[in-house]
Amino acid sequence: MITDRKTVTELILANKVAKGITWHQVADAVGLSKEWTTAACLGQMTFNKSQAEIVGELFELPDEAIAWLQIAPYKGSLPTVVPTDPLIYRWYEVVNVYGSTIKELIHEEFGDGIMSAIDFSMDIQREENPNGDRVNVVLSGKFLPYKTY
Amino acid sequence: MITDRKTVTELILANKVAKGITWHQVADAVGLSKEWTTAACLGQMTFNKSQAEIVGELFELPDEAIAWLQIAPYKGSLPTVVPTDPLIYRWYEVVNVYGSTIKELIHEEFGDGIMSAIDFSMDIQREENPNGDRVNVVLSGKFLPYKTY
Amino acid sequence: MITDRKTVTELILANKVAKGITWHQVADAVGLSKEWTTAACLGQMTFNKSQAEIVGELFELPDEAIAWLQIAPYKGSLPTVVPTDPLIYRWYEVVNVYGSTIKELIHEEFGDGIMSAIDFSMDIQREENPNGDRVNVVLSGKFLPYKTY
Amino acid sequence: MITDRKTVTELILANKVAKGITWHQVADAVGLSKEWTTAACLGQMTFNKSQAEIVGELFELPDEAIAWLQIAPYKGSLPTVVPTDPLIYRWYEVVNVYGSTIKELIHEEFGDGIMSAIDFSMDIQREENPNGDRVNVVLSGKFLPYKTY
Amino acid sequence: MITDRKTVTELILANKVAKGITWHQVADAVGLSKEWTTAACLGQMTFNKSQAEIVGELFELPDEAIAWLQIAPYKGSLPTVVPTDPLIYRWYEVVNVYGSTIKELIHEEFGDGIMSAIDFSMDIQREENPNGDRVNVVLSGKFLPYKTY
Amino acid sequence: MITDRKTVTELILANKVAKGITWHQVADAVGLSKEWTTAACLGQMTFNKSQAEIVGELFELPDEAIAWLQIAPYKGSLPTVVPTDPLIYRWYEVVNVYGSTIKELIHEEFGDGIMSAIDFSMDIQREENPNGDRVNVVLSGKFLPYKTY
Amino acid sequence: MITDRKTVTELILANKVAKGITWHQVADAVGLSKEWTTAACLGQMTFNKSQAEIVGELFELPDEAIAWLQIAPYKGSLPTVVPTDPLIYRWYEVVNVYGSTIKELIHEEFGDGIMSAIDFSMDIQREENPNGDRVNVVLSGKFLPYKTY
Amino acid sequence: MITDRKTVTELILANKVAKGITWHQVADAVGLSKEWTTAACLGQMTFNKSQAEIVGELFELPDEAIAWLQIAPYKGSLPTVVPTDPLIYRWYEVVNVYGSTIKELIHEEFGDGIMSAIDFSMDIQREENPNGDRVNVVLSGKFLPYKTY
Amino acid sequence: MITDRKTVTELILANKVAKGITWHQVADAVGLSKEWTTAACLGQMTFNKSQAEIVGELFELPDEAIAWLQIAPYKGSLPTVVPTDPLIYRWYEVVNVYGSTIKELIHEEFGDGIMSAIDFSMDIQREENPNGDRVNVVLSGKFLPYKTY
Amino acid sequence: MITDRKTVTELILANKVAKGITWHQVADAVGLSKEWTTAACLGQMTFNKSQAEIVGELFELPDEAIAWLQIAPYKGSLPTVVPTDPLIYRWYEVVNVYGSTIKELIHEEFGDGIMSAIDFSMDIQREENPNGDRVNVVLSGKFLPYKTY
């Protein structure tokens, strides 16, 4: 019996390695962006029924796993408070070094409030560059103002 | 006597509030992006001599403070390991929720390596939107591959 | 010179104790709820110009402090990760004990998403009760769904 | 052999996903609020004998599991000190941002003491709203004053 | 100007050392138990007006400090999560070693619920004993049951 | 093969639930206080040979488990530094709120030293009370003075 | 089924002990430095296809494990934030004691920027010495300057 | 009065910035390596009398500060357990990613023991390189074997 | 006014550096061991009246400081949970590496109980040795058995 | 297959309990001190081939386990940063309370440097005493001076 969502993520990863499937292929099959689809496979988003069945077929998951894919998961994909993986740490470093800057500039433009991490999308692209290719990432989040009451 | 860089940041913030200067105005005076200039004023980047003098004049800083602006600072702008400020936390949350997704997609596109946080730039813009304006952020970092040796 | 928002909070608290002002009186003077007004005085929300002047007058704050009240503060009002104050700890305990329950029930009703802590209001009332009066608190937050993209 | 209460929670969740049972249905069968019933199923409250048997039948639990449901559990439903799940984090954020406000206002109204988290109830409701539906939550806790002795 | 309650505790301690006052004397003057009175002087309980004036006179506190003594303080008297002082650590050790025992035995006697730390009193006494005197402590707290709703 | 003491505790708890044994019954069978006996069953104290055999018979433990009961265990019964269970947290809260008070009063009475947590006993009793029954706990520990050398 | 990279590391270590293979032998077979090869076997670097097959043959790994060796792993080889192993701790101590020195001297020579840990190599050698042999380690990392933008 | 070594470090840094002294100049004046001299100025090593006087003269320190320079300091130069400064973090990352590799290779060469961080030296050099200059660091530590007894 | 014991420790250290007093001289003046006397000066033990006066005279302390020396202090002499100073860390390492060994051997010899850190003395001596002098430390603590009750 | 050293420690402990072997007997069989032998059995030291075979025979270990005994282990024998076991905690308390004293006295005698935890031995003995037997422990570590370079 599958008793948590994490087991489903492990099944997906094990089959992805064994079958050599790419995340682009999964996203194409599901018909959504590669960013959202990957996040959902890794247990951070919720599939609807037809999406879950497509994913289940690709990775040859049992029915029970397909049911779990449609449940809102307990989110959070990192094993430690400060990430140890160098790629992910660089993002944490950006938050740490630029955090106060981001805060100052958004408040200067919008006033008090936040940039949503829910009504949010992300797009990761390669930019070819003679000095070494670059990773370009666009983050887009709705501004949510604090209101007085 | 000024014994650390943090005192200079506090002087800048106190004068910014007292005089009503905006970060856009500082960036225009220095002639660089608002993102880099704000980070530098907040003690995360190093000004060269002429930039430091412009900043010093704007905020009426003493000579000693202008010297400190030209020293590479001990970086890190947040008071806690997990940020408590809601605006900055949303960025930490993006790293936490999407961290493994970002890792998977960059590796699928580029192989093993990282996106640099040093050869890096950031651009924050307002996107007008009838459902509520959005904050759009573009992050651009050079891809640095791990090499065998 | 006042170099951070925390100093303004301390000034407000010191004058509140010395003058015997209540938060109800501050809220009445500002014309907003006691919950929002108290949070703003304690450095968690941002006053506009006229509100800041009213607060400044009540607590006899210097002009510089009134300017700080109009700056979006670095939020987070507790000195430790797990609160040590028994009253505030009970709220942390509610999150700890009921957290997974809240998550399950909101997802069952609304699907995947969150209850906003920004587009949010709170109302604290006394309910008289012969077995001991009760504190009743109403929390209201907009539901923000995760979207596919 | 079942050696802890956590195993029972996992059994309940696995069967809930497999059978498609909702928490409303469990609460109706038990005859109590959905909030308390869900918390109890998740190992935060204690069922009496007849309640435990109803739950056991719904989720097809073995007798031993039904015995565990009647034992006061070691409470605490979150895996980390600061929750990583965005929905639950928003509640932690409320405690963090509004914690000192809540403390000030309850003390202003009631004097020194706490709002009980034991003699406590919670009600979660959807409020339809043209700007996006809202989650409304009512928390009610007995005020317990500190006494001199 | 006194900007927090901790400054008042420091004033009390400094004067206690300088004048050689004992906690028994303070408790006698206030007319309450030595346990509650000491806790209140150390910033963990709230004095009423007449009690505060007696304490203020004993320790020659300024008027402002006497006002602070009547404000419900942010409680928590230890500088670290795990106490380093050997006397206080032994109490933490008792909680650590006997915690699960206490839980089992209270639940066996009373069912699910807690022993209140608010409707609570403590009495510390010396017991003469030929093998070395003993510290005897009686803790008394109201049992608060969890209720279904 | 049983490779640690924790496995024995889990066996005891599982059999206790399955057979409906109470801690009072165990204590009566062993002929010691319910407090010490429960602590020993939960892996915090060491049984001698005859006590271990009585416990082994009650819970139908294998011979290997009975051998483990006679080994001094690695003590500490709580899974987190700050306990999350509300009942046990109240005790941690007492240490946190009253810790400095306890220290002051024991030093005032006895001088510098500690109250032993080893030469120590605990007694938990119900006190009937029309306003709600109370949990009364007597802690008794030998005072151990620091000596000069 | 192998569901994570860590299992492959454990298989490699178990077979290394059982067969008495040295890291030098693995490095010779793969044709790269012993430092990089060991790091890759321990799950910190990514093998290409032919390297993975050589490693797989040496340690008699199943096909699935050989596939995992070619996936960029989640890096980080230590079980605690501060390492407890005395050999590895000495390196952490060097960072702790000499960290600010390293920072000052690299900035004095190169200006603001970092020494890359990605475009990086390491060489560990024994230096014979009559007072006791020494471990000599050469670290070489590209300097990456912060740029203004 | 100077009550700790940290104040002396701050005096040195403030004067270094104000006077524009380089660490190379300090090392030349003292007649030792730039690595050891910088570490000593930053409060990690102990100067002898004549070295302390040279340093005192360079930075115009008071006599009391010169006395503090000759006291073995409490070492540790970083403000957080995991460094937030990107340059120093890269070193922590090396320990984290390569830690187990370093351990394996030193044990393979030397057997069980450690590389000393006390009988230790460090040399930091610039290597010119057409693809970008490199930071080369040589660490040399005596091997200390564990002995049986 | 002196408001805590830590200020007295700083005064002692500042004067010790300024006057060049050794701990041996203090111990000789007080007439006790150097270990206990140093610990007491550093705020870990309590002096009686005549001892405090001798110490006060040596370090030219004000009367108020001499009063503080006779108060049982809040003990704990290290600024971090894991010490960063290499000398002190080696002791923590001994506890970490040999902790379970110490536990096993004391229990094998004495049964369940502890070695007291209160009825305890320490003696630190230099042992001349041609291979390098050694630090020899003798720790002596009363064995305190757990008792059944 | 045995995939880590910890499994071997668990096998040794399980067999020690089952067979009633003492550490003294193991030390006698191996021909070394009880302190070193116990540490090695608990995975903190490395046996050579003949020692490992003796240990393997005593505890009836499989060949694979005997190979693991000859591998330098990842050291650190405690499950938490601050030990919860009262016996081991007393040692941590000694480091915490006496740490700064130990540092001051070793530096006063030897100058700047450390007491080695590698070139180190420990001897634990019972001292009979009419007031209660004492545990006497002798620690002996080579002094390693910091050198200038």
From TrEMBL, chains A, B, C, D, E, F, G, H, I, J:
The keyword Nucleotide-binding does not apply. The active site is at R90, E93, S116. CDD domains: Cyanase_C. It comes from the Bacteria. Its EC number is 4.2.1.104. Keywords: Lyase. SUPFAM superfamilies: Cyanase C-terminal domain, lambda repressor-like DNA-binding domains. It catalyses: cyanate + hydrogencarbonate + 3 H(+) = NH4(+) + 2 CO2. InterPro entries: Cyanase, Cyanate_lyase_C, Cyanate_lyase_C_sf, CYNS_N, Lambda_DNA-bd_dom_sf. Residues 77-149 form the Cyanate lyase C-terminal domain. Belongs to the cyanase family. Catalyzes the reaction of cyanate with bicarbonate to produce ammonia and carbon dioxide. HAMAP family: Cyanate_hydrat. This is Cyanate hydratase. It comes from Kistimonas scapharcae. The gene is cynS.
